[in-house]
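Form 7-S
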Amino acid sequence: MDFTYENQGTNTYLVYEIKADDQIDSMSLGMLTNNKIAGFAPTFFTQMDAQKFIKYNVSAKVSVKQFFNGAVNKKRLLGVFEGIVDGLLSAEDYMLDPSSIVLDLDYIFADVSTCEASLICLPVSSNNATDLSMFFKNIMFTTQFDQTENCDHVAKIINFLIGSPVVSLTDFKKLLESIKGTTQSAQVTATKPAATVQTQVVQPKVTPAETTPTTVQKVPEQKTKGTTNVPLANQPKVPPIPQTQITTATTGGQKPEKKMSMLGLLMHYSKENVEIYKAQRAADKGGAQPAATKQAPAKQTNKAGATPNFAIPGQAAPAPSVSSTPAAQPASQTGSQPAAQKTVTPAQQPAYIPRQAPQGQAANFGETTVLGGGAIGETTVLTAAQNPNKMIAPHLIRKKNNEKISLNKPVFRVGKERSYVDYFIGDNTAISRSHANFITREGEYFVVDTNSTNHTFVNGTMIQSNVETAIAHGDTIRLANEDFEFKLY
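Output:
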């Protein structure tokens, strides 16, 4: 088809130039230009000198090929099919030649809001008739349908087309209406509120006798046999020890219920705690050291020049001193401890020494190393000169609010019809419902004006509707009165 597009003011026209050898159907042309026929785009005939044109107003509409790009839901499919069927039935009423109707998805136009379709009738006798059954079958078998909804309507339409070698437009319209009616009734049922049931709860009557307050007797506390809360006279005071560190000395060689840990001993160091800790060590090794056995802890000196028995952070730990118990030592002092046993006092245990950074250097606590300098904890961003292999990520920058719009689809739609476009502009009434498409193909990028009312501009120049215009990094693209900048990285 030798169609072109033309922009006049806010309107977009599909234009056909009549050739010298074309045979015009004058009757069909008169019907189209003098009547507003349902299902057909408004048609005009113009002549300039020897040139004759037939123009069709397709403003604010997109081709069905664009409309069916991507996943197609039930509303779009039924809307387009009903529009085509209505147009074909209207052609019979207005005595239009069926062979003059252009059944090509590139030249059937749809409203993105209502999903209604408009046909193009070219009253030229040289056109060939199209097989309706094959036309609808090709659409059903080549269209990707939305899998997030029930696709029973797809099976019903395919079964109808396969079962009828010749499509009956009347029966096909009834099928579409039944599917649409079922959808509408299901929506009404889903939105109808469920009936509410009011239940009355009967409260039993309470007699005065039943409301007599219940007397609660306080039971005196019972004390455990063998215990008393009265302090004993002349009882020596024992420094408090945390509950978690208390160890009870037992008899009969049983292990204590709670053990004194090395950490607890270091935190609460006292003679009594040392004796408890040593008794536990002896019991663990199989000995039966009496609880009364005492051993003087190692002396600690803090005088100048003396070496302490504990480690100081930042310095090397002192060598632990080991005291050996001789075999001939009296039993009153050693108990049943083996003769060769070595006892290490808590103060002689090596303490944890934190890792020190070399002198003159700051400590590193896991911060990210910054290449080429910069503040600690931040990542250096390589400039275009430093990064010859740039990460290509085509996007738009909306100048109005500096919003970044990632062009993450082969065909990215921009407009104010939320249900159709990929980027919705709801705060600018000058934008059309389907204003423009941004196309990515084999490393090249294009913008296409989709018959918008206020047109699309690239670097200040208006582009032709439905014509792919190449764009490059840094180009300014204006949709109506809204400016965007195209970026590749």
